[in-house]
Amino acid sequence: MKKLHIVFLFLIIGCQSPTRFTKEALNEKFVSIAQQDVTFQNILLKHQGNKILIDIWASWCRDCIVTLPELKKLQQKNPTVHFVFLSLDKSKERWIRAIDRLKIKGDHYYIVKGKKGAFGKFLGLWWVPRYVVVDEFGEITLFKATKITDKNILKALKIK
Length: 160
Prior knowledge:
This protein has helices spanning 2-15, 23-27, 40-46, 62-66, 68-77, 92-102, 118-123, 151-157; strands at residues 29-32, 37-39, 52-57, 82-87, 107-111, 130-134, 140-145.
């Protein structure tokens, strides 16, 4: 019985989502739309003091594209939330063209190492779109959502 309690406790603790990014994820390099190298730490610092919705997407991802109208509605209804888009596109050129073609407003970065880098490994990236919410203090309040209509996004942003 004691072993069963230990296993149960381990499962509960092991299933909890992290509230902070790892040092390795924070130090990973991204590329800004202006073609500047920037660490994920600096991306977060740029938005410090604000709620951030991070949208990990790609221009080749059908689910990412078809849900853009819902995301744009969320942006319009919540102008104080900062939207950060991180792309898993196969090339920077396709990424930049897609932002312009789809008229995606927000702060844009290209994930150089893709799913295999420290950032991708930290998130356990295997599916896009993927949404993460970070609060004003840099705490992760929602670690994983795969649909922009997920009610947990609104809860994490504390939006009614």
